[in-house]
# Entry
Amino acid sequence: MARPRILLTRKWPSACESRLAGDYEASLNADDRPMGAEELRTAMAEYDAVLCTVTDRLDAAAFEGATARIVGNFGVGVDHIDLEAARAAGVTVVNTPGVLTDATAELAMTLILMAARRAGEGERELRAGHWPGWHPTHLLGRGLSGRTLGIVGMGRIGRATAERARAFGMEILWWNRSDTEAPGTRVETLADLFERSDVVSLHVPGSGETSGLVDLDLMEALGPEGILVNTARGSVIDETALVEALRRGTIAGAGLDVYAREPEVPEALRGLDNVVLLPHLGSATLETREAMGMMVADALDAFFGGDTPDNRV
Ligand code: 8YV
# Structure
């Protein structure tokens, strides 16, 4: 029997590519050039499986006349895939939950620490040759110990972030859409969570439901000493309101790893000193990226072997 034809839309860690190329008729993307919408639609109608990432928009048109029977998403978030269209076309979609939990929680802590301790500002100052030398009132930030972290979305990554923040002496409040058990104190409304927290970290998936969830009202509730951190999806924050809030001191600072229209980062944000900006590094460790790729490969093996793959979305 001919081996299934699979397409990797981006360059993956070499251990994953070697495995997939060994088992499948695999098309790799050695140049790692992002594919356009039209190219993706064509690929969906040519291959048996398309292995995509957050940089690929698989809209309804991509599923029209699709030959691909499975889409393997290298990542946990699937807001770039039209899941309804996939379901209607009978295309299985799998993702990579769990393996990137620790890496993403570590990055949330990185942003919390960097924003609270003004590490980005300090680094920029030093690199620009503007460090005036040590002085008692230089770049005074905020410590974490004894402060309150509010978690929006108490799933795997929210919990892992809470666990780490506790080790820094933080109290944990959390808000979750559905009922769940978790350490820390559950808060019924987002307004209450923002009001009572010193730092808020976002851990909800991107979706129509969470789009613009964090608006100016919530930032006002967080207040002029508050810090907002986002390792989830850019769409969860009203970016225009955030720029205003940072500019006016409605909140003290922010740490962002994700943006509404990646890789575009609003000029207005880039011009602000009280925001730490990272280029979507949440899961960016070699071991995590390898585990993500291997998880997609396992799902493909199950699927083409006639079994139901794990992690169907
Ligand atoms: C991934 C992420 O690296 O898994 C996710 O949803 O946001 C990232 O950590 C990225 O999505 C790869 O597709």
User: Anything to note?
Assistant: The longest strand covers residues 148-152. DSSP finds twelve helices and twelve strands in the chain. The mean pLDDT is 98. The pocket of 2-keto-D-gluconic acid is lined by residues 53-54, 74-77, 100, 104, 282-283 (CB under 6 Å).
